[in-house]
Fold this sequence. Notes:
globular; Phosphoenolpyruvate Carboxykinase, domain 3; alpha+beta
Amino acid sequence: xxxxxxxxxxxxxxxxxxxxxxxxxxxxxxxxxxxxxxxxxxxxxxxxxxxxxxxxxxxxxxxxxxxxxxxxxxxxxxxxxxxxxxxxxxxxxxxxxxxxxxxxxxxxxxxxxxxxxxxxxxxxxxxxxxxxxxxxxxxxxxxxxxxxxxxxxxxxxxxxxxxxxxxxxxxxxxxxxxxxxxxxxxxxxxxxxxxxxxxxxxxxxxxxxxxxxxxxxxxxxxxxxxxxxxxxxxxxxxxxxxxxxxxxxxxxxxxxxxxxxxxxxxxxxxxxxxxxxxxxxxxxxxxxxxxxxxxxxxxxxxxxxxxxxxxxxxxxxxxxxxxxxxxxxxxxxxxxxxxxxxxxxxxxxxxxxxxxxxxxxxxxxxxxxxxxxxxxxxxxxxxxxxxxxxxxxxxxxxxxxxxxxxxxxxxxxxxxxxxxxxxxxxxxxxxxxxxxxxxxxxxxxxxxxxxxxxxxxxxxxxxxxxxxxxxxxxxxxxxxxxxxxxxxxxxxxxxxxxxxxxxxxxxxxxxxxxxxxxxxxxxxxxxxxxxxxxxxxxxxxxxxxxxxxxxxxxxxxxxxxxxxxxxxxxxxxxxxxxxxxxxxxxxxxxxxxxxxxxxxxxxxxxxxxxxxxxxxxxxxxxxxxxxxxxxxxxxxxxxxxxxxxxxxxxxxx
Length: 653
């Protein structure tokens, strides 16, 4: 069990501020009159002590208390420009930020959980003992903001008043990080203390880019103190390593759900989107996928957009599963975002009217951003993530340098999107009736299938396998990606899995309101289904049809074909949905290739999971029961029909 406030609070130890009186004395000394007036509007002791200790430890020349006003937002944006962290682009409201070319993703090898002795940490993560972390932070963060400006922001990770929202402090010397926070999160200066009192906690994030030099990257670190819910990040600039309001605090939210949620709360790596059904019905879907695996595209395929990356979920008093988005913006990968597959996002990226921070794309001689897969004519020269670029430029290994980094991003407010839903700011969240899990799976699972029950649904999430993406520095190959949340699960996987079984199987979920749980996979290739080449067997826009079928299935509007892994669609239903939802023919031959079970591949996947989870401690036996049931059913199918089983063979059984 994770213990809160266990061990020394590192920033308090290094800052030396123990009480409110000492904090106020430091503010009198270090803040100018304007910002002293601002901070005096706060009175909650732990908030003031935390801010004061961060100031004392990092020693900035100036402290800017950001209240979220238009003037404050403009100051932060201008500070980013003055420091060279961003540069203005010709389109009004657009800027470009470049990370160090050696830091274009999460530095997973330098990311650690601060652990107390005997504390269980996920087997998929790195840990550092608290005493060692104290030495590291003292050595590398003390005085790191000397001569610079610390921006202090008070944010809500979710709508004010929501049951599963989380308050968080962001203290950083990077104006780019602060600018990003203003787009991605709700500045809640006026509501922050009230929400902290209601919820009984807050998160703290302390970051400095230091001198922002490549030679400092070996000394970059991301530390997450679970006991004191505080993150430390230094000598790095990529938002995934620095804006720890995002994945750093998501980790704390996972801990909170697993160890304090009592089976009624989850923190997931999921989009939230609404699908239109008949007679004005809107069905809300939450879906997990590893970063870089199409989560934003899937979220945008819905009719009512709430979020593309994170979800806080709970079971309310009426027995409904509710979801909120901790964020209010998109930090989205732009590779392969184009007019055909992502028309609404492209409209906002290519037309004026929205504030956008671009990162690590190519900027041509006219100041226009370009990226791989945008479906447009590509320039032959410009500047990109590694410096000046021209077509055909090669790296030191003779490999051609792409026009943009695979992890190039855009940061934009959710409310700018044409399909944005006002429900995103509803404190009661949205009633969630469909849960999906997906990854970059080129050769095994069908495009969509629904679990037989909640235990089978948890197993779908536990068994995601995905090709590595550019979101993690140095990652390659194909790997397990449990729930697409594994990099952000601080504790033991067995604890997290138990929380999943408890939540989705909870008796607190009312009859008729239990979500269906499903797998999604639109990365099947031709060569994996009897053809040739690595081109996708379908298109990105096909996900609209898969989601529409899940919407109908959630309400019992369509039948399905039962298989050992779950329920798959009937051809006639999918043919109709392709025609009505995306105006596209759907040949039966394509359906058969996509939905035939390639039994040996699925068996190998199941065996992989059984072997991997057998090495973990305290995995709930229910997982192995589900996998054995599926394995036995698949073996029986193979004995009867051979290694490839068609939908017709399944439906005729």
